[in-house]
Every structure is written in structure tokens, then in C-alpha cells.
Predict the 3D structure of the following.
Amino acid sequence: MGNYGISDRFNVLFMLPYVKTEATKGTLKGMSGVQDLTLALKYRLAQIKNLSVIGSVGGSLPTNNYVADFLPLAIGMQSKTVFARGILYYTLPHELALTAQGAYIHRSNVRVDREMYFSDQAYFTNEMMMPDVVNLGAKFGHYSYRWQLEATYEQNIVNGDIDIRRNDMPGLCAKMDLTRIGLVAAYRIPQLKDLQIMGTIGQVVAGRNVGKSTTFSISILQYIDLRKNKGGGGIPTGPICRPGDVNHMGNMSTDEHKDGHK
Amino acid sequence: MKSSFISIKKLFAAVSALVVIWACEKSLDKDGTELETLVPTKVDADAGTWKPYILQTATEVALTAPEDVSSANYQKELQEVKTAMGNISDEQRLAIRYWAGGGILRWNQIMRSLVAKRNLPPAENATGEYPIPNSANPNADPIFPFANPPYASRAYAYVSVAQYDALVAAMAYKQQYKRKAPYQVDASITPVIVSKSTLPSFPSEDAVMAAVSYEFMKRLFPATEDTLFLYKKKEEQKWFKLWAGASTRSDIEAGEKLGKAIATKILARYSSDGMRNAIGVKAQWDSLSKRVEEKGEVAWKSLEDAPRPPMLPFFGNVKPWNMTNPELQQLSIQYPPLSYNSAEFKKQVAEVKEYVTTKATRENIAIVHFWADGAGTYTPPGHWNAIAEKYIVADKQSEFRAARNLALLNTAMMDAAISCWYTKTYYYFPRPSQADPSIKTLTGVPNFPAYSSGHSTFSAAAATVLGYLFPTDASKFNDMASEASMSRLMGGIHYRMDCEFGLKYGKLVGDKAVARGQQDGVK
């Protein structure tokens, strides 16, 4: 994934994951491959004292004809999506900050390899209806240039009321609701040219049609300054979706700073 | 600078609005049940002379003659038709549109839906045992039935046979009594949506179909929710031609009476065809492995986390349609599998491994999933009914011909299930993942022995019958059957020998149904 900062208030994000699945039990074969390309634009609409109001729109497209109708071992859903997200970011003293966000994700229907399926009823078509998703979240944490430590809360609500029936294969259109809490820790390593290493842990604490799973992730992030006129005394002004970085500079909302990007 | 920020804000608003608009437009354009109003190319007025399956003669079940159209009672009925047509509701109009697509195909769709709904294996209980669904207590967990492929093949066959026999009887009485339809008696009546059939309207073939289908299907799907759904469908089909101006009350009441009486005749065979002994008990299951092991072969084992008894291991003893049990048994063991210990067999295991690793292409996976028809679907026999539906629709076949053709197809597939299950239990051969646990499959491993392939047997039997009924596409049906067969090797759940011999067995079974079709009086 990548994040390109066009200005202090405007970012372009993209993501293209490679996914591999494997079953720990049973005889079913796991799958792997490149999944969906996500593109998003993120823009700070307003700055009211310590509150940043941020909007994001984007979408995703499957990059190839991977198998979707093989949950839970499929690598993705084959759905095209468009989404709109609103983010409120509020900075507190001691480099603490609070984030609240909400998104609406529209998902296109999906064509599968078979010509009938049962979800809430039998359908004699290869087209599966994909309900839209509402995603809500909140974060609280400490953000400095060197460190990021946060606690996260996430709520995923899928429209409709299609449940996976007992002993059935999970359908793509199921109401896979979940509540997940998690922790994020990130550190920029001075010895490695400030390469950021990030670890996350998430736990599904409640849900419908999803397992009570625990997820871990480790990622690395390298900041590349592409500006001709590099400012900030060698310390990069981070992308605005990580306002903690910018806050470290202490001049995010000043006019001089904006002018510097003309 | 300022102005460019504003335009980006506007862009945001526009995109967000678009998201909301798209969100409201979510639906499926088609759910696959769409049927045009049926106007048959051939009315099949001679259907009363066709050979029924269970009835000795078409008029074995007596039906009292109707009153003449000049009678006061009939005139009252005509008035009722006109009043109903004048007060037609939107809901009734929808029902007319639905059933005008053809009752036989509609009941077939309903049945495929219910099979898919109830095709879920019971979950194990706390002690790791699998409770058996109980038809006497259908609403309890696990809900009755578990509509697996043998169960489904039997359901499709009996309902098709019952509908066919009932329609043969209906036509015999239509021709015997020759009572005109309301629009033939009273020129002021123009039917709504439905076509003006030239056939006599007593008894109503729709009421016959409604009654016979409902009486049978409520036994096949006795859970309260399913029975209520079926009852609603029955009532709709029973009355829609009165709302549409094409049948009168006495046409309908006679039809329902006839359909019900014929269902009773066919239920007698249904309740004594050996299905009740198809599951068996633990001692019997154990003896199956012992018999194979004594021959020096390796016996099938369940690969589920909590080992499950094989699915309906004694279904092979159920009474077939187009041959006797001894004939079927002889037919079903004539090609033995390779010996588990042979070098050729090891080669076949290696081939399966190859299909789920280096040969697991996207195209092959699509074939595996297209034909899988596993849990939560209408099963392979249901898939072949869906294929047949397209041809019946394209030919605009009358209800009578559609019923006969589906009866041929579905008796062939039930015989295929009986034959294949006889083979499976007889040889009790392990699945590839048992022979080589490193074989990870692209579809679920069915919980019954491998040899021979059920999909191959069903598909070859179906393709043989459909090739007889629609000869111009015979080679297409065979290609589909071969693909369905190969899909099981590609999926990693069958050896090549299961597929190839399954096709051979299926062809033999299909031929028996064709032999019947050549002698049932249908031209």
C-alpha cells in the first residue's frame, strides 16, 4: 500500500494486497493471489482549532478473476466498491488525540461460477446481491513523530439480514457484522533512516456470521519526500491522515506552511 | 488556492451523493424463475392415452360427470367467474402471471428451492454424534429432511411421476366429458393473461397439479414453514384460472378431488419403497468396512472432524422405476474398481494430486464449482432439471408433455442414485484424501464412498434421457455430462475410474428410462 501526500490537506492512498489462505483443519485447499486495488482521496475539509474535519472518497476493483465463492478460503469478494468516509480528528495535550470515523461502502453485485445458490431463498442465477456496509470506528492514542500508540474500536454493519445457515458454506452476501477492538504500536527506527515498523492486534469481541478471531499484523512504512523544496528542517511533514506527524511540526494550519506548497 | 479548495469540496459532495444514489438501486434484475406465459406449440389432446406409471389405467380413479353448461348451477358458476374477473386484485394478477408460465415448471422450481433450503447435513451434537432428522417431528433440530442427492432424486422422481399420472387421468376425463371452458360457453368472457386453450376445462388440470403436488410435497417437506408455503402455492394454482376467466368452480373442485385421490395411490408405493431402511444402524455400517477389509482392500472412512456415518448407505436397495432390484444390482456391480493395492490405482491417486496442485487452473476451478451442487444447493439432479427446464421452455411444451419428460428424466436420475449407491456401498472405496491426506480439495469431500461417482452417474443418465427427448442437442448433453464427471476429478474428490465408470453406469440406467419412453404412447 502507499500514501502520496499532494499537500498538507490532500492525500492519495492506494492499496493492493496479496492474500494467502490455508485451512488448519479439514480437507479444503487454501487459495492465494493478488486481490483488489483500492484507491482513495483524502482531504482535510476544515480545521477548527484542535479539530480536523477530514473527508475521504474512494473505491476498489478486483485486479483479476480470483475465486470469491469459496469462503472462508476465498481471498476476496470480487465486488467493486465505492465508499465515502468522514473523519473527525481532535488533538489533546501531551500529544494525545481522539479520532472518530464513519464510512458508507457500496458494493456491486458479484458473478460467481455456479448458476444457483441459497441465501435467504434459492436464486437461479450466477449473480449474488452484495449488501452495502456501514463502518464506524474510534481511536484514542499518543502520536509523536517517533511513536504511535493507540487503542482502536471498530464496528462493521452489513445491510440486510442474511445469516449463514448451520453446516452451509458461507455465502458472500451474509450479514457479516462485527465489533473489533485492537491496539496499534508504531515506531520510527532512527538507525534505519526512520523506517517505521508497525504492529497491530485486533480481537473480534462480538459479531454475526463471523468467527471470534484474533488478527495480528506487522508492517513497515518508508517515508519518501518527493518535494523539490524540502522543508521542515529534514523532518518530514507526514501525510495528513496521520495528523500526529504533522502536529509534531506544530504548524499544520498556518498560512505560511500552505504557501510553501504552492 | 482558495477556489481550488472549494471545487474539491464540491467534488466530495458530488461523489458522496452518487454513493448514496447507487446504494438505493440494489437488486437482482432476474432471479432465474422468470417464465413467459405458456402457449403450447402442441396441446397434446391425446395425453389421456399415454401410459401412466402407477395407475393401471388413466381412469382407474373414478370422476363423476359434470353438470351440463346449460344447467342453472353452471350458469351461477359463470356469474362467479365474471364477478371474480371484475374484482381481480393486484395479488391475484401476480399469481395469474406466475402460474401462467406453466404449472409443471413452477412446481419444479419450487421443489428445487426447497431441496436447496433443506440440503444441509445435520450438525453433530455435544457428544459428537449426528442426530437423524425425523419426519414425525420435522420442526425439531435437525429439521426434516436432509435433502441430500439421493433424497432429492427421489423427491423429484415421485413428484414428477405423480404429476404425470394425474395429468394423464385429467386429460382422459377432459376427453370423456368434453365440457367447454367458460370463454367457449360465454363469448363475453376474455381470459386475463392466460391463453385460450382449446381443451375441455373439466377437470381443471391446474387444480389436479396443485392437489397432487401439494399432497406429495408436504410429505417430502413436512416442516411447518415449508408446508405453509406449499399450501399457499397450491391455493394460488388451484384458483388462478377462475380469477383469469378460464375455469369454473366445478372444474377446479373436480380437479382437486382427482389429484388428491391419485396422490394417495402413488403414496402407497412411496411409503413402501425401502427408503425407511436406507440409513441403517451402526452394526450394519461396521459390517460394510469389515466385508471390504476381509477381501484385503482398504475400506472407506469418514473424513469429517467427528466421523459421520455414510450418507444413506442402503439407498441402493430402494425400489427403482425402470427395472427390478435384481436387474439393478446386477447392472451396478459389473465394473469393479481397481484394487487399492495396485500400481494403476497409485497412478490414479497421483493424477488427483496433480489436478488439485499444478492443474488447479482458474478455468478448472470454475468447472468444479459450476457442477459442485453440494450442500445448500438443489443437488446434481436439480441441476439437470434446471437444464431440462430451458429446453421445455424453448419447445413451449404443454403441461402434459413437460410432466412426461420430467418424469422420464427424474425416474432415470432416481434409478441412477439407487444404482450408484448400490455400487458405492458394495465396493466401499476410500476417497482420494483418505488414500493421500496431502490431497487438499477444491470442493467439499462428500461423506460417502468414492466408487463410482454420483455426479457422473446422474449426469450420464440425465444426458441419455435428454438426448432422447431433444435429439438435436444430444452431443451437447453428453459433453455436459463429461464435464460434470471430470469436475469431480478436477476438484480432487474422485479418481478417474470413479468418473469414467460412473458415466458408463449412468448411461446403462438412462437407457432403461429411454426404453420406457419409447413405449409410453407419446408421439
Summary: Confidence is low (pLDDT under 50) at residues 232-262 of chain A. Residues 23 and 42 of chain A are 37 Å apart (CA to CA). The first strand of chain A starts at residue 2 and ends at 7.
